[in-house]
Amino acid sequence: MAIQIGQQAPDFTLRDTEKNKVTLSEQKGKNVVLLFYPLAFTSVCTAELCGVRDNISFYNNTNAQVYGISVDSLYTNGKFKEEQKLNFPLLSDFNKEVSTAYDTIYETFSNDMKGVSKRSAFVIDKEGIVRYAEVLENAGEVPNFEAINKTLESLN
Q1: Verdict on whether the full-model pTM lies above 0.85
Q2: Consecutive 10-residue runs of the chain (156 residues): their mean pLDDT?
Q3: Per annotation, catalytic residue among 3, 33, 34, 45
Q4: Is 50 an annotated catalytic residue?
Q5: What residue ranges do the domains of the chain occupy?
Q6: Phi, psi torsion values for 23, nearest 5 degrees
Q7: Domain 30-154: which topology?
């Protein structure tokens, strides 16, 4: 079932590239941006996440913690983060539980890969309520960062 604006965000715990557990409900008190992306090292994913990297001061100034989430292993995400010098955590949803809970998973992706995260963006406010939700069917598109940023500005 699609995530709706105004609902409580589904809680989760995933591991980051340093093998630390990150739990969404423990982020209360700050805004959270969840960026699901299909696969590390692909051109659109790299461009999207590097764009966030280059604008991280905006997210910091809006009291927002950004997390990139993919079904890649934490080791693949670690190499991707290192090579692209990403300055926010990447979380591994290797078991596909969070992508499924957020209804942002392809049944079949390119080259017959099953269970890849759809490119998606969610803004969750300080109380854990979803304030922005965008799930893209076309992996070649990127989320509407202007709308994401306006949502974050409105929360402060």
Answers
A1: yes
A2: 92 97 96 96 94 97 97 96 98 96 87 86 97 94 96 94
A3: 45
A4: no
A5: 30-154
A6: -115, 130
A7: Glutaredoxin (3.40.30)
